[in-house]
Amino acid sequence: MTRTPAPWGTLRMEPYAATTTTPQYTPVIDPGTQIAVIVDEQGRTVELGSHGTSTSGLTPTTTSPGDGAGPGVATDADSTESYDQDQSSG
Length: 90
Description:
Blueprint: H1 8-11, E1 26-29, E2 36-39, E3 45-46, E4 54-63, E5 76-85
Antiparallel strand pairs: 1-2, 2-3, 4-5
């Protein structure tokens, strides 16, 4: 009688590494400022570090020939990039 070998992946399996419990944080909206804040399990505000925000955009611009232009008249296109970053403390 022939014995079927175990799948190769099962030979490599090990127990999961030890884990730790992480505290639960919940985002909420501060009713006074309408800004999101993070609170812990006891309802205390948690500071997650400072960070800034930024926006960036690519604005295409195009020029076309006016009325009455003959066939084959070229159009011109380019784009302008804008980048704005808030000041971040820290």
